[in-house]
Write a structure and sequence with these properties.
The protein has 203 residues and is α/β, with parallel strands linked by helices. The protein has 5 helices and 15 strands. It is globular. The termini are far apart.
């Protein structure tokens, strides 16, 4: 891919593509050693995502949660032979899927390891992915610059998402780069001091 990497180290390259009317972030995580790759959230623009997947060796899709704007390309990805996974609690939100993603699991991507972190609140099955050995967290719609994700949809719950962020994400290293499902990156250290403000404002 000609575009510069969103994040790169000796063993990993992460590319970011923004797709669809909701400007969803799609991330491709590629192991440089083996060429194996996964795609985080097959959100939209399936033709583009399939082209990128073929070029980068993507064999699986990891879904952060089941909201419609994050899954618009799932059917086409599966039709092309790419396996799609999602947490059990959100699985019924997909038209179809190939595997479920447990909490506190490890997903191998070549030599890379992604740790799964169940963070309910935005949806019941919302899941974040932490890249082992690198300060990188894919947060889906659980954590953004300036606050947590929307909890007004079915399956959302504000106290639950606050607990998820406090106990599962804000325990990570401060320099951890947070790559959300929409918008710009942030870091754990940037957001952690504001938790009480979010609680007080109620969103």
């Amino acid at each position: 891919m000609a575009r510069p990497a969103h994040y790169e180290a000796t063993d990993v390259r992460i590319d970011k593509i923004v797709v669809g009317p909701y400007e969803n972030n799609v991330f491709i995580v590629r192991c440089k050693g083996t060429g194996e790759a996964v795609l985080v959230d097959a959100a939209n623009e399936h033709e583009l995502l399939l082209e990128v997947s073929r070029a980068t060796g993507v064999r699986r899709v990891l879904t952060t949660h089941g909201h419609f704007d994050h899954i618009q390309a799932v059917t086409q990805m599966r039709d092309a032979g790419i396996d799609v996974g999602i947490a059990t609690e959100d699985a019924q939100m997909l038209p179809a899927y190939d595997f479920t993603i447990p909490d506190d699991d490890v997903i191998a991507v070549g030599d890379l390891r992604l740790h799964t972190i169940h963070t309910p609140g935005h949806t019941r099955g919302s899941t974040c992915f932490l890249l082992e050995g690198h300060p990188v967290l894919f947060s889906g719609d659980t954590l953004f610059p300036g606050g947590v994700g929307n909890t007004s949809f079915e399956g959302g719950d504000f106290p639950t998402i606050i607990e998820s962020v406090d106990r599962r994400l804000f325990t990570l290293e401060g320099e951890t780069l947070v790559l959300p499902g929409h918008g710009l990156d942030t870091t754990i250290a940037t957001e952690r001091p504001h938790l009480q403000e979010w609680i007080d404002r109620g969103w």
